[in-house]
């Protein structure tokens, strides 16, 4: 299974969505909240609910 590119949680098969950039980079997201925060260039380390903040 893929991991969410923003929060780090596993994306279960059949859920979430995949975002493909023009250069071919693929990003997986488990919910729209993660996707919108990614588009706004938010840093996942600043949010307590992400895996990146828990690893600090």
UniProtKB/TrEMBL annotation:
Instruction: Look up the domain of life of the source.
Output: Archaea
TRASH domain: which residues? 4-42
> Is the keyword Ribonucleoprotein assigned to this protein?
yes
Specify whether Nucleus is a keyword of the entry. Answer: no
- Entry GO terms, CC: ribosome
Q: Which InterPro entries match?
A: L24e/L24_sf (IPR038630), Ribosomal_eL24-rel_arc (IPR055345), Ribosomal_eL24-rel_N (IPR000988), TRASH_dom (IPR011017)
- Print the keywords alphabetically: Metal-binding, Ribonucleoprotein, Ribosomal protein, Zinc, Zinc-finger
Gene3D superfamilies xref list = Ribosomal protein L24e
Annotated Gene Ontology MF terms? structural constituent of ribosome; zinc ion binding
The record's comment on protein family reads: Belongs to the eukaryotic ribosomal protein eL24 family.
Protein's name in the database: 50S ribosomal protein L24e
Organism annotation: Candidatus Acidifodinimicrobium mancum
